[in-house]
Write the structure tokens for this entry.
Amino acid sequence: MATIKHFGPFTPAEKLIEALTEDGCVVIDTVLPPERHAKLKRELNQHLDAIPDCQGDFYGYATKRLGLLFNKSDVFQEMALVPSILAVMDHYLLPSCSQYQINLTQAISIGPNEPRQIMHQDDPMFPFLHPGQEVMLNCMWAIDDFTETNGSTVLVPGSHKWPRQESLNLALNDLPPEQIALGTMKAGSVLIYLGSLFHCGGRNETQTRRCGAVISYSLGWLRQAENAYLGYSLEDLEAMPDKLQELVGYFVHKPNLGSINGVHPLEFVKNPAKLKLFTEFLPEAVKPFVKEFRDQSLTKNAA
Ligand SMILES: O=C(O)CCC(=O)C(=O)O
Ligand SMILES: [Fe+2]
């Protein structure tokens, strides 16, 4: 079997990036302190216990999925903001956007006897070819231990370097064992994998569930997989740290994308009735050129 590199919780981002660039995936062990993990599990289970299994050949029939995790537990909010994970996102996403965002949050609880999912990449949800540019990355947090037999994520290290091809190629489900790795890890650990990496949920051969929670990040000018504007109330939003309010979608991608009537969306949503100036949101690098042109135009007109 292929292997995935594991690092400790205080590993500098550069090391994680090195492993991700080489393999397309990496595990950071036991990031969540035990008491935060216990709180998260308790709060998440209240919701998971109340929902039925999914119905879908991709999502599974013995698997529960639950989104909008940031209003289920404040621990999810902390998980989304881990500094070394954000530094990894800075590295892969900031070269191609002024700000990145949360693409989705999803708890995935794979039940007994769920077969292996079809091998796939996650980024074809953005249907354009983008060789060499990652558009999204996933963080799969282990809520339960991910073991050899309970449905740990199956990954194909190095497959992010393959030429872009049909994402759902049935032949990829029969790769030789030496090309396949299992994302085994202890509860509270996180597996990071690139959106271009082939992977799938594993077969759960045990009699207990395997719960993981995905927090994924994408370029800030793409549509988000999870519609956070409809999903989170203003109250939910105000319970999030400022940085997370932006990450869930309340930001302006410069220039001007996502503003509303010339206003920043956070300002708009928190005080919609107030009359506000129609302002512009320009990249810092662009501002001097626009100003210089305007100053010249004014001078010419005055002459
Ligand atoms: O549950 C897992 O380990 C992975 C699931 C997955 O890749 C997906 O649903 O897109
Ligand atoms: Fe996936």
Notes: The two ends are 76 Å apart (CA to CA). Residues 120, 122, 199 surround fe (ii) ion (ligand 2) (CB under 6 Å).
